[in-house]
Write a structure and sequence with these properties.
The complex is a heterodimer. By secondary structure, chain A is of the alpha+beta class. Chain A has 2 domains: 54-165, PurM-like, N-terminal domain (60s Ribosomal Protein L30, Chain: A), CATH 3.30.1330.10; 173-339, PurM-like C-terminal domain (Phosphoribosyl-aminoimidazole Synthetase, Chain A, domain 2, Alpha-Beta Complex), CATH 3.90.650.10. Chain A contains 8 helices and 14 strands. In chain A, helix 2 (84-97) packs parallel to helix 3 (118-135), helix 2 packs parallel to helix 5 and helix 5 packs antiparallel against helix 8 (298-306). The radius of gyration of chain A is 21 Å and the shape is globular. By secondary structure, chain B is α/β, with parallel strands linked by helices. Chain B folds into 3 domains: 5-62 and 171-245, 3-Layer(aba) Sandwich (Rossmann fold), CATH 3.40.50.11750; 65-167 and 256-299, HypD, alpha/beta domain 2 (Rossmann fold); 315-368, no CATH class. Chain B is globular. Classes of the chains: A alpha+beta, B alpha/beta. Chains A and B meet through helix 7 and strand 14 of A and helix 1, helix 2, strand 2, helix 3 and helix 5 of B.
Chain lengths: 352, 376
C-alpha cells in the first residue's frame, strides 16, 4: 500500500475513444457517431459538417426538396406500441418533417435473414403499409436481399424518403438564437424503454408503449400557426433529448438550458429508468419533436401542439442562452445546475 | 414514484440546505463514500446548495474506478476466448484496460453480454453447456450477495461451465486506510447506504471511536444526502464523533443477516489491490477453497496478462489543486475533450474539460469554471 492515500487524486479511468475497429457505440448517435461522420464520412463525401441535420435540403427543377435515409435494426421486431415496420416508415417521415418538408415518396430496402418466418415478414410489411397510409406517403421502389442464417437479426430495413418543402420555409439549427424557447410535444423515453423492457424481460404494472408516430401533420400545423417564428425542429431519436440538444447547441453556437422539472416523463418510464440506472434524457423517442421558437410565439406553439393528438402533453422545457456557447445545461428540480454532456455511445446501465 | 419522489422534494431540500448553512461556523471536509452518492450530487447539483465552508470529497466507492487494471486485463483476455460467453454489468464495458476495453473485444468477435444479475449469467451457462460462461463479479458489499448466490447455486446444480472473475472490495478497510493516511483531510464520512443495507453499520462504530470521526449512514436521493450532510455537520460543530443512521428505511444496525451468512459461506477475506491506491490488507473477498473451482482466475490460464498504466496524464495533480489544467504540458495539445488523456478531460464535470470548453471562448470565465468532480 502507498504511504499516502489521497482520495482527492482518484478519478474514474477514462473511456477509450480511438478504436481501431467499429464498436457498437459508433451507431449510438452520440460522440462516437459524430466523430465517424466528421472525420470519415463528411470529408470523404465533401460535405460541410455543420450542414448535417435530419434531412438534406436541395433545389431541383425549380422546387425545394428534402431527402433522408435511415436504417432500422431493432430487436425484438415487435414490441409494445409498434414494430420495426412502423419505425421504418415513421422514422424517415419524421426526418423529412424536421426540415419542414411534406413527405411524399419512400423507397424500402429489406435485408432478410434466411429462416425468417413468412408470417413475421408479412406482419412487418403489413405494419409498413398501414404506417405509410397514415403518414400519407407512397412506397414506390424497393430492394430485397437475403443473408445466410446467423448473419442478420431477422430483418433489417432501410427506407429513403423524399419530400417537398413549401416556399418560404427554412428550418435549421443555424436559425436558433439566444432567447428562443424550447418545447417538446410530449413525454420522453417511451420508445427506448418499451423496447428495453421486452428485451430484458421486465414487467411493469402497465406496459410501456413505444411512441412511434408520424410527425409531419403536427409540423405542418406548427408552421401554419407561427410560420417564420419556428426556427428549428429536431426529433430526439437515438441518444435522446440530450443528444439533439447538444447538436443544436454546437451547430448554433448557443447554450441550451433545460428545466428538468418541466420535461414530461411518464411514471412507468421513470421507474424503469431508475431500475436500470438509465437517464430518460438519453433514451430514444420515435414520435417526439423538439421545437426552437421565437419567444413571443412560444405560447402559440404550445397551444398548437396541445390541440394536436400527438401533442396533448406538450411542454415548454427550456430556453436558449448565449453562454456558455456549445453546451447544454440543466436546472435540476432541487435548484442546482449541471452540464448535460453529449453521450459517447450507447447508454450503459450503471453498477453504482 | 412512491418512495422516490418524496425524497426529491425541492422545498424540503432548500430548508435542509438552510439548516446546514445555519449550523456551519467553520470549514469542514466531508467524504461521500459511494459513487452512487457522487452521481446523485452531480446530477442534482446538490453541491451548489451547500455553504462554501463544506467541501465534499468523492470517495473510493466506485467499482469502475477502483477495479485494478490487471483485473480488467484478465477480463479482456478471458472475454476474447472463443469458448467463452463473458457477462458483465453494463458500465464495465467501457472501462479501459492496458490496451483495449470490452467493447473492442466484442467488436473483435468476443461474446460479451450485458446482464443485470449474475443469476442471469448462471442461466446462460445452463442454456449453453458447451460454452464457458464467466461473470465479472466486481463491486462492494452491495453486489456481493448476488454473486455469492450464483456461485452457491452453480455448486448445488453442478454447473461446471460457470465461473466468476471476482474482485470484491470492502468499504470499512478503505475508510480506515484513508484515516490512517498522513495526507488525510476528511473529517466526516457519509457511509454508503446500500453497502450498509447488507452489512449493517456495527462495523463503523469502532472506526468512529478510534479515529474520532462522525460517520453517517446515508442514502442516495437528494434529501437523503442533504440529511446525511446535515447530521455530519451537526456532529462536527458539536465535537461529537458517532455513527448515525440517516437511512433507516433501508438500513438496520445488524444489516441483512441471511445475506451475511451467505457471504460468509462463499467468501473469505483477502488482501485486495485498489486502482490508484495500491494493496489494502484484508480489504476484499475471494472464494473459499470449497468454491475455488468457480474462480475464473483458477479456471483459465492468465499468466500472459501484463498491465501498464498510462504515464502521461496529470489529472491527479489537477484534482489536488497542485496544477491548473492549462498549466499541464499536454493541455489543449495531446489532451483535448476529443482525445483525452485523463478523466478530468473526458467528463464534462471535469476541471480540464471545463477549462477547455470555457477558456477557449472567454478566458475571464476561467475563474468561475465548475469545480472538479468525478463520478463513477
Amino acid at each position: 500500500m502507498n504511504d499516502v492515500v489521497d482520495p482527492s487524486a482518484w478519478a474514474c479511468p477514462l473511456p477509450l475513444r480511438d478504436y481501431p475497429s467499429v464498436v457498437i457505440g459508433h451507431g449510438g448517435g452520440g460522440k462516437l457517431t459524430a466523430e465517424l461522420i466528421a472525420h470519415l464520412f463528411a470529408p470523404a463525401f465533401g460535405l460541410a459538417e455543420q450542414a448535417l441535420g435530419d434531412a438534406a435540403v436541395f433545389d431541383l427543377a425549380g422546387g425545394r426538396l428534402a431527402l433522408s435515409t435511415d436504417s432500422f435494426v431493432v430487436r425484438p421486431l415487435f414490441f409494445p406500441g409498434g414494430s420495426i415496420g412502423e419505425l421504418a416508415v415513421n422514422g424517415t417521415v419524421n426526418d423529412l418533417a424536421m426540415v419542414g418538408a411534406r413527405p411524399a415518396y419512400l423507397t424500402v430496402g429489406f435485408i432478410i435473414e434466411e429462416g425468417l418466418s413468412m408470417e413475421v415478414l408479412a406482419g412487418v410489411v403489413s405494419r409498413m403499409s398501414q404506417a405509410a397510409q397514415r403518414a400519407n406517403v407512397r412506397i414506390i421502389a424497393g430492394d430485397t436481399k437475403v443473408v445466410d442464417r446467423g448473419h442478420g437479426d431477422g430483418i433489417f430495413i432501410n427506407t429513403t424518403g423524399i419530400g417537398f418543402i413549401p416556399p418560404g420555409i427554412a428550418l435549421g439549427a443555424q436559425r436558433v438564437r439566444p432567447g428562443d424557447v424550447v418545447l417538446i410535444n410530449g413525454p420522453i423515453g417511451n420508445h427506448g424503454m418499451a423496447v428495453m423492457s421486452v428485451r430484458e424481460g421486465l414487467q411493469f404494472e402497465a406496459d410501456i408503449l413505444s411512441d412511434t408516430a408520424p410527425l409531419h401533420d403536427l409540423v405542418a400545423m406548427l408552421i401554419k400557426a407561427v410560420g417564420d417564428a419556428l426556427h428549428a425542429l429536431r426529433d430526439p431519436t437515438r441518444g435522446g433529448l440530450a443528444a439533439v440538444l447538444n447538436e443544436v447547441a454546437a451547430a448554433a453556437g448557443v447554450c441550451v438550458q433545460l428545466d428538468e422539472r418541466a420535461v414530461p416523463v411518464e411514471a412507468n418510464v421513470q421507474s424503469a429508468c431508475e431500475l436500470l440506472g438509465l437517464d430518460p434524457l438519453y433514451v430514444a423517442n420515435e414520435g417526439k419533436l423538439v421545437a426552437f421558437v421565437a419567444p413571443e410565439r412560444a405560447d402559440a406553439v404550445l397551444a398548437c401542439m396541445r390541440a394536436h393528438p400527438l401533442g396533448q402533453q406538450a411542454a415548454i422545457i427550456g430556453q436558449v442562452l448565449a453562454q456558455p456557447a456549445g453546451m447544454v445545461t440543466v436546472r435540476t428540480p432541487i435548484g442546482g445546475t449541471r452540464i448535460l454532456p453529449m453521450p459517447i455511445g450507447e447508454q450503459l446501465p450503471r453498477i453504482c | 414514484m412512491k418512495y422516490l419522489a418524496e425524497f426529491r422534494d425541492s422545498a424540503i431540500a432548500q430548508s435542509l440546505a438552510a439548516e446546514i448553512r445555519r449550523l456551519v461556523t467553520r470549514p469542514w471536509v466531508l467524504m461521500e463514500v459511494c459513487g452512487g452518492q457522487t452521481h446523485s450530487i452531480i446530477r442534482n447539483g446538490l453541491d451548489q446548495l451547500l455553504p462554501v465552508e463544506i467541501t465534499l470529497i468523492h470517495g473510493p466507492g466506485c467499482p469502475v474506478c477502483v477495479t485494478p487494471l490487471a483485473l480488467i486485463d484478465k477480463a479482456l483476455m478471458i472475454a476474447a476466448r472463443p469458448d467463452v460467453i463473458f457477462c458483465s454489468f453494463g458500465d464495465m464495458l467501457r472501462v479501459p484496460g492496458s490496451q483495449k476495453d470490452l467493447f473492442r473485444v466484442k467488436s473483435e468477435g468476443g461474446d460479451v453480454r450485458v446482464v443485470y444479475s449474475p443469476l442471469d449469467a448462471l442461466m446462460l451457462a445452463r442454456q449453453n453447456p458447451n460454452r464457458q460462461v464467466v461473470f465479472f463479479g466486481i463491486g462492494f458489499e452491495t453486489t456481493a450477495p448476488a454473486n455469492a448466490m450464483a456461485v452457491l447455486q452453480a455448486k448445488r446444480l453442478g454447473v461446471r461451465n460457470f465461473s466468476v472473475l471476482i474482485s470484491h472490495v470492502l468499504v470499512p478497510p478503505a475508510i480506515e486506510a484513508i484515516l490512517r493516511s498522513p495526507a488525510n483531510r476528511v473529517q466526516a464520512f457519509l457511509a454508503a447506504g446500500h453497502v450498509c443495507s447488507v452489512m449493517g453499520y456495527w462495523q463503523y462504530v469502532p472506526l468512529a471511536r478510534r479515529y474520532g470521526v462522525p460517520i453517517v449512514v446515508t442514502g442516495f436521493e437528494p434529501l437523503d444526502i442533504l440529511e446525511g450532510i446535515r447530521r455530519a455537520v451537526a456532529q462536527l460543530e458539536q465535537g461529537r464523533a458517532e455513527v448515525e443512521n440517516a437511512y433507516p428505511r433501508a438500513v438496520t444496525y445488524e444489516g441483512n443477516r441471511p445475506a451475511q451468512a451467505l457471504l460468509a459461506e462463499v467468501f473469505e477475506v483477502t488482501d485486495r489491490a485498489w486502482r490508484g491506491i495500491g494493496v489494502i490488507p484484508n480489504s476484499g473477498w475471494r472464494l473459499r477453497s470449497a468454491y475455488r473451482e468457480f474462480d475464473a482466475e483458477v479456471r483459465f490460464d492468465l499468466a500472459a496478462v501484463q498491465s501498464q498504466e498510462s504515464p502521461l496524464c496529470r489529472s491527479g495533480d489537477v484534482l489536488q489543486g497542485r496544477l491548473k489544467p492549462n498549466e499541464c504540458p499536454a493541455f489543449g495539445k495531446q489532451c483535448t475533450p476529443r482525445t483525452p488523456l485523463g478523466a478530468t478531460m473526458v467528463s464534462s464535470e471535469g476541471a480540464c474539460a471545463a477549462y477547455y470548453n470555457y477558456g477557449r471562448l472567454a478566458p475571464e470565465r476561467l475563474a468561475s469554471a465548475p469545480l472538479p468532480a468525478m463520478s463513477g
